[in-house]
Amino acid sequence: MTKFPKKPQIYVTEPLLPPLDEFIPYLEQIWGNKWLTNSGPFHQQLEQALCDYLGVKYVSLFANGTLALVTALQALRITGEVITTPYSFVATAHSLLWNGIKPIFVDIDPVSLNIDPEKIEAAITPQTTAIMPVHCYGHPCDVERIQRIADNYGLKVIYDAAHAFGVQHYGGSVLNYGDLSVLSFHATKVFNTFEGGAIVCPDAKIKQRVDHLKNFGFVDEVTVVAPGINGKMNEISAAFGLLQLKYIDEALQKRKAIDARYREDLAGVKGIHCLADAGGEVANYAYFPILVRPEYPISRDALYQELRNNDIHARRYFYPLISDFPMYRDIPSAAQSNLPVARKIASEVICLPIYPALSNGQVDAIVKIIAGQPSR
Ligand SMILES: *Cc1c(COP(=O)(O)O)cnc(C)c1O
């Protein structure tokens, strides 16, 4: 077998991998019962375990978060126009295009970096059927205000909660807001199943519809009720999720400590702004974004490059804006003049490495590079 060289670089994230020997018994069970996919025993167990851990009613597992977003829109029969944020991963808006829906971009709030509820109403037209906000970096959206607007105009709300695993708001899971919430369990996320995702559903009926849609629309052996997709999670991914759940609290604690260390060490660095923390609620410390302001000695891109020169692969999440990609930029709401806040933040942001295995020494080395840049 070819051995891959171990990379010495520090990446923005590193997957949570429990000890390999603990995974072997799960594999032996799969080999033993020969049930590889289609709602097998591990799939069923993980759905229940996630309901319990997250504090939600129903979970439907998916092969990835993008298929879950596409299916969530179908499950609620969303059409026409959907109001969303340009400041996200491109899959948010792609899920709309895959359903023939027109994304309408609304600017973000300069503090939370989530969609600005103040600007949603002006974007509503007779074609608007839903709002798709993102809990960016796992920071909760203004869920109550968004719900009030949705209720006033008869709109659905689907949260792209890909960053929001384990996040709590007003004493409960943030995933309980809106009509549906969508998680991603991609390798780069706080909780991963290699690839994976889920739709959080408030009742059994909608969960059943979602379950049909992710299995080609099959209701039983001979009945197909919709042009559903193949979005099913396989047993190996589900088993891995179950094992990882045992380690997730420890991982979140480590993330919290890294977040605190960065904040403390970067506090005195002129021109570097750390986002406000998520307040008194349970956060997941999924990302550590900093904003590089004009007072900083060098540009954002120069700092990004300087980090790379030191084998530190930070990422400019989210730059470019979704609305700047070719398949979106001709939509009127994608105009730069419509999105001044998002545009400014996208030009300032860098997400620093944060993951459980990142050592204090590595955090200090990253901070030293950021704090040590001379003007040029
Ligand atoms: C990761 C991510 C997705 C896509 O999830 P996949 O599981 O990679 O398909 C969607 N939206 C946001 C905001 C994400 O960060």
From TrEMBL:
Keyword set, alphabetical order: Pyridoxal phosphate
One BP annotation, GO: polysaccharide biosynthetic process
Pfam families, A to Z: DegT_DnrJ_EryC1
Top-rank lineage group of the source organism: Bacteria
GO MF term set: pyridoxal phosphate binding; transaminase activity
Annotated signal sequence range: none
Coiled coil region boundaries: none
Catalytic residues (positions): K189 (proton acceptor)
Residues found modified as N6-(pyridoxal phosphate)lysine: K189
CDD domains xref list: AHBA_syn
UniProt similarity note: Belongs to the DegT/DnrJ/EryC1 family.
Name of the featured protein: dTDP-4-amino-4,6-dideoxygalactose transaminase
Organism: Methylobacter tundripaludum
